């Protein structure tokens, strides 16, 4: 890797971002053309889980959409859809389309979700779908076999620290982009959110709905915001939960990621450690003593190399960071994380005085931190020798502008690490594949605004006070940027909130079924406590 001086790197970074910012406006898509008739969806009864008895009430389809909307009569790709028919057909309102985020998250089985109250599933067909390039919908694949993928991806260190780790990771990232150029095919430049939204509007028409009812989570909030601004008169009710900041994400990928690290993950971690210490052990197994100091000691020890556990497994900085991030996504994982961290702390800094504690986590619980957290929402059918897909970067590298200079990222990581010591480097090294991605952000059609078109009905924006992946300020930005929206807040450490609070779900049901817009400024609480009181 070239060893550039800091002033040279800074000038290169500034110039690259200025170039990208200057081209973003030109890439802004025009409003949608007048609606044209589309073919209806042809549904076929299906069993959502063929390993179990068919519950009935479900249908599946593959709906054709244009690969390239500039050539609407040209090549088609299929969008896999599943619906759960409304429980009360006599009172059916229409379809509720669902997207779980990612990007690259499979929404197909979200037709089976139990996040919503029964009145929602009684009045709506729940429709899950895999967006273009994801899982069952013409998956974007950069490799032909799992072995080819492992030969590249296995060389990537999630949180590289040493020069050798950084150089090997950047070389593997370049090889990854090259594999995508060779194997991904014609879909590669057509993976932007703009095209996903065009597909969604076709599906809305194809199921016979005059207006869209939609719930989008995480990245799915960008789908919702884009739809609301491309088709403002087609919005019936639209929920966005765990919000991105659309303006920032589409204008400056680096700054968006920096804020995720410092204002999302790092702030949520600090609150997690504070709440753990406040309840103490045994409710939070890591709660004895100064939780911040203990955590930093473990993390900084891992920066020097792996910690080998008694069972022979090794905890690395990468596996540790990924598991901590993963636990912050869901309250249900936070007490187990505390037990694993306390067990690891006992290895790193043995405390003989604590040896008699009956409730001390056994050392083997630290082994949970020795494996990288699995990628979320990946449901790729094993129908080819390469069983995954590459839609995460397929979307991100088109939507989010990054400087086309991989050598900048070590400097970026070093700078971000100062304000986000746990997650700055982790987040910085998520982006380098986009620096050499074969389809360039400034060359493809993408929607970059405006975001303030007034919709036929106000949108419902939901944000958690300590959302690690999409910080609360992003939800506030989403509410401000949209032409007509109301923000409801839930006070918890978790990514997304629907299904976690009875008070919230009551508002969601009224909004979806009755189109009752919730009062602004509400602060709600979750139903569960991440550190429940032990049973006596």
From TrEMBL:
SUPFAM superfamilies for the chain: alpha/beta-Hydrolases
Entry keyword set: Hydrolase, Signal
Domain AB hydrolase-1: 96-249
Claim: Methyltransferase is one of the keywords in the record: no
Signal sequence annotation: 1-26
This protein's record includes keyword RNA-binding: no
Pfam families: Abhydrolase_1, Abhydrolase_4
Recorded superkingdom: Bacteria
Record domain Peptidase S33 tripeptidyl aminopeptidase-like C-terminal: where: 421-521
Family stated for the protein in its record: Belongs to the peptidase S33 family.
PANTHER family hit by this protein: 2-SUCCINYL-6-HYDROXY-2,4-CYCLOHEXADIENE-1-CARBOXYLATE SYNTHASE (PTHR43248), TRIPEPTIDYL AMINOPEPTIDASE (PTHR43248:SF29)
Protein name from the UniProt record: Pimeloyl-ACP methyl ester carboxylesterase
Source species of the chain: Kitasatospora paracochleata
Taxonomic lineage of the native organism: Bacteria, Bacillati, Actinomycetota, Actinomycetes, Kitasatosporales
């Amino acid at each position: 890797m070239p060893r550039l001086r800091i002033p040279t790197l800074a000038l290169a970074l500034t110039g690259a971002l200025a170039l990208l910012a200057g081209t973003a406006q030109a890439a802004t898509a025009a409003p949608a053309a007048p609606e044209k008739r589309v073919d209806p969806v042809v549904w076929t009864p299906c069993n959502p889980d063929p390993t179990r008895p068919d519950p009935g009430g479900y249908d599946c389809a593959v709906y054709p959409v244009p690969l390239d909307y500039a050539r609407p009569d040209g090549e088609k790709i299929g969008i896999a859809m599943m619906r759960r028919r409304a429980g009360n057909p006599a009172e059916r309102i229409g379809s509720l389309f669902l997207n779980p985020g990612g990007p690259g998250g499979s929404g197909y089985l979200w037709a089976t979700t139990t996040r919503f109250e029964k009145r929602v599933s009684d009045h709506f067909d729940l429709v899950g779908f895999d967006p273009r390039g994801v899982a069952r919908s013409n998956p974007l694949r950069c490799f032909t076999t799992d072995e080819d993928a492992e030969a590249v991806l296995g060389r990537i260190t999630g949180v590289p620290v040493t020069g050798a780790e950084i150089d090997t990771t950047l070389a593997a990232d370049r090889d990854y982009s090259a594999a995508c150029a060779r194997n991904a095919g014609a879909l590669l430049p057509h993976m932007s959110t703009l095209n996903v939204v065009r597909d969604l509007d076709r599906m809305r028409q194809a199921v016979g709905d005059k207006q869209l009812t939609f719930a989008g989570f995480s990245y799915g909030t960008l789908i919702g915001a884009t739809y609301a601004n491309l088709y403002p008169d087609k919005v019936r009710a639209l929920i966005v939960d765990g919000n991105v900041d659309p303006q920032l994400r589409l204008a400056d990928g680096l700054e968006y990621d920096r804020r995720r690290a410092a204002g999302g993950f790092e702030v949520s971690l600090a609150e997690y450690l504070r709440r753990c210490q406040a309840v103490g052990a045994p409710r939070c197994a890591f709660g004895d003593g100064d939780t911040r100091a203990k955590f930093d000691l473990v993390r900084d020890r891992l920066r020097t190399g792996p910690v080998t556990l008694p069972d022979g497994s090794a905890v690395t900085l990468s596996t540790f960071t990924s598991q901590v991030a993963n636990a912050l996504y869901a309250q249900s994982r936070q007490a187990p994380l505390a037990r694993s961290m306390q067990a690891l702390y006992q290895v790193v800094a043995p405390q003989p005085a604590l040896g008699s504690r009956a409730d001390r986590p056994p050392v083997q619980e630290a082994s949970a931190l020795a494996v990288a957290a699995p990628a979320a929402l990946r449901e790729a059918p094993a129908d080819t020798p390469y069983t995954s897909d590459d839609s995460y970067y397929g979307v991100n590298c088109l939507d989010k502008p990054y400087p086309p200079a991989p050598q900048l990222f070590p400097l970026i990581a070093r700078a971000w690490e100062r304000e986000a010591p746990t997650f700055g480097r982790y987040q910085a090294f998520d982006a380098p594949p986009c620096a050499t991605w074969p389809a360039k952000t400034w060359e493809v059609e993408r929607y970059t605004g405006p975001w303030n078109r007034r919709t036929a009905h106000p949108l419902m924006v939901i944000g958690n006070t300590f959302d690690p992946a999409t910080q609360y300020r992003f939800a506030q930005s989403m509410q401000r940027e949209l032409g007509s929206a109301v923000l409801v807040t839930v006070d918890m450490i978790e990514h997304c909130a629907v299904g976690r609070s009875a008070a919230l779900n009551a508002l969601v049901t009224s909004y979806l079924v009755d189109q009752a817009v919730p009062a602004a400024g509400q602060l709600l609480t979750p139903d569960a406590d991440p550190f429940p009181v032990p049973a006596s």
